[in-house]
């Protein structure tokens, strides 16, 4: 069954969009038969009118969807949270396209941007700095290398919390390297090397900052919506999430934030046009999940800061 996944990649457009997604979402063709050019002027006018009506109808249908997405984002940002933060707070986000916010049509930085907006609204008197160093397509080895970037290392050095997304592109590399004969064993062979690289990422962050809390966001199965009948895909995601949890458990001041369940039964309304990355609504769910997990550490950080100030 995994060979089917390899064949799916052959359907991918250079831009990263899925042809299978286009075929499922586009209900009408974007071309007409050559004989249609010989129709009368009246027929053309009727077709134009009908086309305009269809476009208007499509636009009307799109508005409720867009409104729903905006409402989902607003619900996260506007939710009243009891975050007692009066001191400066610095969050550094590093990782792949999920950190960059690929698929977020608002260009607000995906879950990281929504997280920042929510924190600023919840604690308007505090100084909130959120740095986003996400890069689309980055694997664990590339993220590890980018940690040597002076801007990134300096941001981590000053951070109270570090958020990390990594692993999805490592899985994609395995798929692309074994398109025609993909098996579960191909993923098994890469588990230990991936764990070593992930551990190195944590160690490199610790070299820059001994005190920051490091949160690793888990992986979700982006193929679940169209290929839920391939159980191996879920098994792979489960395996690689377990690697992440095990690495986190070996660290101090670290946590694992699961996101798989957020997308397990989510429909198209949570995905971008590429049917792979989250859209604003999907990222809003991620931001809400991240806030739930980091809130205790935010308040603990504040308590520690208050104690330091009282001792001075």
Automatic annotation (TrEMBL):
Residues 93-284 form the SGNH hydrolase-type esterase domain. Residues 29-70 are annotated as: Disordered. Residues 48-59 have a biased composition (Low complexity). GO terms for molecular function: phosphatidylcholine lysophospholipase activity. Residues 29-47 have a biased composition (Polar residues). Coiled coil: none annotated. It holds the Pfam family Lipase_GDSL_2. This is Lysophospholipase L1. It comes from Salibacterium halotolerans.
